[in-house]
Fold each of these.
Amino acid sequence: MRIELLDIPSLPDEFQTVHTVKALAVEGKCLALAALLEWKRSSFSDWKKLMKAVRYVGTTERRYIAKPKYVKKCDNPTYGDVYEMRANKGKPRLFFFYDEIDETIVICTNAYEKDDSRRGKSGGQDAAFKLCAQMKAIYERNVA
Amino acid sequence: MNKEELSPELKALLDATPVLTESDIKELADANRALAHDPEFIADCIKGDFVNTILTEMQAQGINKNQLAIKWGKSRQHISQILDQEKSKNFTIDTIVSLSMALGLIPQRIELKKLAQNAVPIRMKHLESLSGWDRSPSWCAPEGTACQCQHVAESRGPDYNARSPENQILEFAA
């Protein structure tokens, strides 16, 4: 299996003063970058809101990550330390985890678009956290 | 690892995801570069950093919006407006300074950097002492320059925080 860490293309250095933000690609496919591109094309204002969260994560030490509007840590303990970046009052969500070995790296895995319906909201988000946890495990197995 | 270890959901998602082309990457790169030159975006980020510093400090001091409102001499609604970035108006430097001081913080300066370099808009220090200084690195100076945050203080030796605030400040001045 081919696992790669990709740069977020031309993400400004000033957005990554603490963590370098990367995207995980599996078998040449990168869910996070594909979603960013799709949001950039389809809902530019939401994409900009999400990029504020990306900047926040890139410029904030992990122990200070506590801004519910931008970042939420998964509250399901079975999925471990996985997080979502949120477009405040927008739909895009980008899931990520911190590299436990190289603490300067944040790795985006997958994306999710918030569904306004009650059922979609909880189920979709949980599934996306689960997927993020799976991709984190794949990454860690390959890095180890 | 083989492909069988992928869950069906992940497999399905990967199958449905297109491989990004060079032009896709370039499109995303151009958009990201443009963000760093977008005044509205940068202003929102700086406001967000300020709000986050205030929220973190409120949490550290264990005070809520009501208590802060009393300390600051403003209404709770006014504080909510400032701390809710989506609703907040473009608050003034006077507001930044007075709200910070209500929490025992003082903004030090607004720093301007060349666009390509790291932007460090505002730094703050505690009014009483630097020993409790523990800010997000987003407020810190670029590597190799003077900075008044805890993790740089740690690199200055274990006894650094035991010194009087005056001596700490003198060291920065030196």
Note: Chain B touches chain A through 47 residues (CB under 8 Å).
Amino acid sequence: MKVRLVRSGGFAGVRFKAELDSVRLPEEGAQRLARLVKDSGVLALPAGGAARPAGADRFAYRLTVETEGREHTVEIGEQEVPPALEPLIAWMMSEAREGTA
Amino acid sequence: MCHERAPLHCFVPPYLLREIARRGTPDQQAWAWRALEVSEQFRGERRALGAIAAAVTTPAGAKRRSVYDAAGGTSLPGKLVRSEGEGRTKDVAVDEAYDGAGATWDLFSEVYGRNSIDGRGMRLDSTVHFGQSYDNAFWNGRQMVYGDGDGRIFHRFTRAIDVIGHELAHGVSQFEAGFAYEGESGALSEHLSDVFGILVRQRKRREKAQDSDWIVGKGLLMPKVKAAGIRSMKAPGTAYDDPVLGKDPQPAHMRDYVETWDDNGGVHINSGIPNRAFYEAATRIGGYAWERAGKIWYEALCDRLRGDSGFRDAVSATLSVALERYGPTSAEAVAVRDGWAAVGLKPATRGR
């Protein structure tokens, strides 16, 4: 399983990205990734394109999950992120901030 | 600009009509009102007229600021911690949000004659300490919101007064042009917020156009980050180059316009193009940028730009304001035209 995250926008407009790949993670990390993806319900989320609510300078996320020969991409504004998806995004953002991606 | 539907009124630009509606004799006020109604109907916008109606019918507004504390949560607005007229708190973010909102309100009120964000005396609400290590500030359609930063890359967002001006100006844009937040119209929203943000800072420092560094978000990044700030209006694309942040992606010329799906179509990226045009125009005009360049951009935002406006509409809008206000051979009109030409933009061949 591969998961890629791009965060763009925000006041600063700085682009952060991270990629996690089960085969390159330690066993524990790979299990955590599979669990967070399952719990997040990301594979059932629509691809995006919902009308943006009023306001400006919010973050925009693009999350892509590759698993079992299937690829699913979700584009979502930070204010629309369901609580179940937050832990996966938080983990990937901490990876992105390390500058390792 | 002139259309047969409004043959009488089109000779008087909207900013003058507003002045007459505010300050004229009762007969003149009534006439200016009808003219404004026609021009508003023509532009298909009703919001702006509502703002003028309030400006005419309510006395000059007073500043009303409220600062709330989200205490690391994401519920808005949070707990009220400082209201208008109350003394300083022990929380630097609270006081910066209060002071910055005040300086921004002062610019719009004292220089542009605007009564708050909506033109009708709206209360200025700000929330600080939003989220955990939240490295952002935003306008949510009703209020300003500031994060504390992660402490590694980003400081707290109230630290730069131009960030506060930027967020509040998003509110002004919402009640005026009402830009669609994507592509060129979204980049214009970002551009105007950077303009009024930097003008708040320059005015507070009594800094002339030629003496400013034109850096947006100075002091927002931690000292070890290789950056002058978040954006350079003078030289877009040069604000930072850092191992973690990457390189500033802003273009400085229309030939380098970035097509992307990220960031709502690059609204924080392509704003570099009009940002530099403003810098070029303001430094050519000289003196305090908020006085003439800022006024031209403000009038364009209020009277000429709309939700779907693009960069070329902004060229036509600012140039027509400069021509009407200062005359066709004025230094101001020439500076505006040359400023846009410097980034590869010319006025549209046909106005609308």
Note: The CA atoms of residues 17 and 75 of chain A lie 14 Å apart.
